[in-house]
Design goal:
Elements (H helix, E strand, L loop, with lengths): L4 E5 L6 H14 L4 E5 L5 H10 L8 H25 L3 E5 L2 H11 L4 H12 L6 E6 L2 H8 L10 H17 L3 E5 L4 H14 L5
Parallel strand pairs: 1-3, 1-4, 2-3, 4-5
Helix pairs in contact: 1-8, 2-3, 3-5, 4-5, 4-7
Amino acid sequence: MRGRFITFEGIDGSGKSTQVELLSRRLEVLSIDHLIVREPGGTDVGEKIREILLSKGVKMTARTEFLLYSASRANLTEKIIIPALREGKIVISDRYFDSSTAYQGFGRGIEMEYVDVINRFATFGLMPDITFIIDVRIETSIERKNLRDRIESEGLEFLERVRKAYLEMAEKSERFVLIDGERDPNLIHDEIVNILKSRGMLG
């Protein structure tokens, strides 16, 4: 029996990581077997790549950045996510390939045909069952994150392109659920749980 694959997306400071944690706590209370992963990272290789990607002192081209994210994602998907799903677990990921579509595709301007092909290659074609996009204003993002790492220091125009990408993605597929991230985290969590229940993904 294949498990369920739930992903969370949004610009930096959207509160997605908080929602991942709250959902994990809910599943623990319900005694539902699950696994939490994050991107980039989640494996020994991925964590080393994460250090490079989030370092302020490292400069790289857009393609290099994209391929590093994809390398981390490929290792995580093959070594951790797919085996867990085969065991019937719910896997919750803090970011997945949609991040590369938004950040490296729309944000950096890499041709989408390359982004799509490499996304599929790196993930073995594995698609999430549902993806929650936690949406906040750019001003909220900046206030919450204080532009702490290399990606977040790109400026307003970059974040605006990324946010616009997520909003456009949410309109194109039923896999995406757009969530207003400006509200109280507990209210957002309740909404997410209700949506999962309505789709038969949570008891």
